[in-house]
C-alpha cells in the first residue's frame, strides 16, 4: 500500500510543466480528474499528494463496465486497480500528482471561481 513519500514529492516539484497554483489555491477550488482509460493504479499520485486526496483500489463495477473492451482487458491485466479521489475537497492544486503520474492519467481542473472573478 502506497503512502506519502516526501523525497519523491520534492523530486517532482521541480517539473517545469507542473500545473496548478503551487499549493496556494483555496480548498475545493481545484480537483484532479482520473482518466480510467490510462490509469494503471501504480500509486505515484498517492505517494506525492501532500493532502492525501487519492486512494488506489479495485475499480468499481460501474466504472469498469463503462470502459471499452480493450481497456477492460488492460485493466484486468493490472488487477483492476485504479486511483480514486475520496479526499478531493482537500486538493490545494500543487500539481504534483499530474507531473508524477507515469501514465499521464491526471488532469487538474478548476471547479471554483478564479481569484480574479471574485
Ligand atoms: S492516476 Fe496515475 S499515478 Fe495515480 S494510480 Fe493512476 S496511473 Fe498511478
Ligand atoms: S494537485 Fe491536489 S490532488 Fe494533486 S497532489 Fe496536489 S493537492 Fe494532491
What is this structure, in a nutshell?
With 118 residues, the protein is an alpha+beta fold. The chain has helices at residues 6-13, 44-48, 61-65, 69-77, 96-100; strands at residues 30-34, 55-58, 81-84, 106-110.
Low-confidence stretches: none
Top-tier CATH class: Alpha Beta
Please identify the oligomeric state: single chain
Number of domains: 1
Question: Radius of gyration in whole Å, from Cα?
Answer: 14 Å
Number of helices: 5
Shape: globular
Q: Could you estimate the helical fraction of the residues in percent?
A: 25-40%
CATH topology (fold) name? Alpha-Beta Plaits
Main β-sheet, spatial strand arrangement: 1-4
Number of DSSP E strands: 4
Bound molecules: iron/sulfur cluster
The structure class reads alpha+beta
String of helices and strands: HEHEHHEHE
Which architecture per CATH? Answer: 2-Layer Sandwich
Q: Would you write up a description of this structure?
A:
This protein is of the alpha+beta class. The protein has a single domain, classed as Alpha-Beta Plaits, CATH 3.30.70. 27% of the residues lie in helices and 15% in strands. The protein starts with 5 loop residues before the first helix and ends in an 8-residue tail after the last strand.
